[in-house]
Amino acid sequence: MLLVLCVPAFFIFLGSSPITDSDEAYYAEAAREMTESGDWITPRFNDEVRFEKPILFYWMIAATYTVAGVGEWGARFWAAMSGVGLVLLAYACGRRWTGEEAGFLGGVITATSFGAASMARQSLPDLPLAFFITLGVWAAFAALDRGERPAGAWSPRRWLLLSAGACALAVLTKGPVGLALPVLIVVAAVVAEYFVRPGVAPPFRIRGLDLALAAGIFVLIAVPWYAAVTWVHGSGYLHRFFVAENLDRFATARYNDPRPIWFYIPILIGGLLPWSLFSVFWLRRPIEGFRESLRSSPEFLRLTIWAVAPLGIFSISVGKQPRYILPCLVPLAVLLGSTISSRVRATSTGTRDGMLSAAGLLAGVVLLVAGVLLYRGAPLVTAAGGSGTGAWSVLVGISALAVMIVAVQRSPRFLPATLAIASALTVLAIHAAVLAMPGVAPAADAAAALTRARGTSDVRICACGPFLRNLPFYVRSRTVQAGTQEEVNAVLSSGVPTLAAIDARKLAEAETTLNRRFERLAEFRYLNTALLRIDDFLYPDPERALQRVVVIRAR
C-alpha cells in the first residue's frame, strides 16, 4: 500500500516538467556531459569543472541516462527513488520501535508531506543524502539494540557495516556532513540514554573488531574517488571542497545570506504539511509525562534526539537552506505517526477527541486553501499556455472537504487514510496544473529554435537573462552565460556571431544602449515556476509574472 501511495506522490508527471533554471540544472547537465565525455572522475557543467559537490549523485543520474536516455525523468529518477526509500525506512523504523500501525502511518506521512513530495520531483542530491543519512542512523541504532534478538535477525556487526556503507555513500553524495551528522545523532542519543536511564540496560554488544571492520568499509567506499580526483586535479581540490564548500558554507555568509536561528521552525511546519498540524498534541504534553516517556522508552528518546540534533546543528549555522533539514523527516514522521495512531485508537472507544477533530479540520482547511490558490492562479496558467487548472482545483477542493467531513465524525479511524489520499492528490494537482504545463517549457522551445538557427555553423549560443543554468541541458552544448545587463551588452557588442535567448526587457535596453536592432527569430512567454510566490496566486498578474523571451541573432 505504501508503494502504491508513492506513485502519485513521487512519480506521476515526474518527467513532464522541464529542468528548471535553478540548482537542478547543474546536476542534470553535469551528468549529461559526463556520459558524453566518458570522464567519470571530474564533473563538469557547461564544459567547466564543477567541484561544488562530490560525485555520487552525478554517477546515479549518468547511469540512468546511459540506460534510459537523457531527459527530465532520468534526471529526477533517483530523487524520487530516495523518496520511496525514506518511506520504507520510516515504516521499518516505526514498525520496529512504535508498532505496525504507527510505522505504517509514519511511512504515509513521509510520502504525502508537501516538502518530501516536492523534493522528490527535483534533480537535487538532498533527498538521496537524507536517505543515506537516515539509513546510516537507523542501522547504527539497530546495531546498538541491547534486547534479545529474534532468530534470524541480523547481528550487530552486520547492522554496523550497513551503517558504515550508508554513511560512506552520504559522504560521496554531499561531503563530510554525511558522516558528521549520523555520528552526532548516534553519540548524542547514547550519551542521553546514559544520563536519562542510568543502569537500566545491559552493555552494548559492539566489539572493537566490529568498529574496525566498519571503518574499513567506510574508507573502501568513500575514499577512492576523493583520491582519484585529487590525483587528477591536485590538492587544491581538497581545500576548495572541504573548506570553501563545507566549512565556509556552514560558518560564513559567503554562499547564503544569514538567517535567524528560528529559520527552520516554519520550514519544518510547512514541509510536513498537512500532517504537522497534529504536532499540537506535543505542545499539550505535560513536562513530567514527556520526561517519563524518555526514561521508559529508549526508542522515544532516540527518535527525539534524532529529530532535534540536525535541527540544532543547522540552526546555529550561518548559511541556511530549507532543504538542509531533510534528515529530520523520518524521525518526525515516525513520532507524528505514533502520536496520531495512539489518539485514533483512544477515540475508537466512542469518546470524541476534540483536538484530533480540530487538527483534522485544520488539515482540510490547508488543502482547501491550496485548491483555492490553484483556482486563483488560473490566469497565469492560461496566459502561459496551460489548461485544466479549474478541474484540478475542484478535485483538491473535494478532497479537502472529504477530510473535514471525516474529521468531525465521532470515530476518526478513517481520518489518516482520507488525509493521505487528499494530500497525495493535492501534490499531484499542483504539479500537473502548474509545474508540468506547456507554458513552463520555453527553455526547450528556445533551445530548439537556437539549434535550428545554428544549423551546422560554428556560432556561439548565449543565455542572456533567462535560462542561465538550464539552456546547456537543452541545446546539448556549451553556452555563454550573461546575467547582468552589462554582460548582455558586452556579448551582443563583441562582434562575434551569436544566437541568444534574451529577456525582452534586457533586449530593449541593449538595443537602446548599443543603438542597433537585432534580428528576431522567435518569441515565447515564460512562467518561471522557481520564482512563483503565494502573491502570484492571490493577485495573479500575467504581465508581472511572465517573462517574454526572444531568440535573436547578433552578427
How would you characterize this protein structure?
The chain has 555 residues and is of the alpha/beta class. It has 3 domains: 2-8 and 21-344, no CATH class; 348-438, no CATH class; 441-554, no CATH class. Helices cover 65% and strands 6% of the residues. The chain contains 26 helices and 7 strands. It has a 5-stranded mixed β-sheet with strand order 4-3-5-7-6, sandwiched between helices. Strands 1-2 form a two-stranded antiparallel ribbon. Strand 1 and strand 2 form a beta hairpin. The radius of gyration is 25 Å and the shape is globular.
Strand content: 5-15%
List the total number of helices.
26
Query: Based on CA inertia axes, which overall geometry fits?
Result: globular
Residues in helix, %: 55-70%
The number of domains: 3
The radius of gyration over CA amounts to 25 Å
The tally of strands reads 7
Uncertain segments of ≥5 residues (pLDDT<50)? none
What is the topology, as strand order, of the major beta sheet? 4-3-5-7-6
Overall pLDDT, averaged?
87
The largest β sheet comes out as:
5 strands, mixed
What is the straight-line distance between the termini? 60 Å
The class by helix and strand makeup works out as alpha/beta
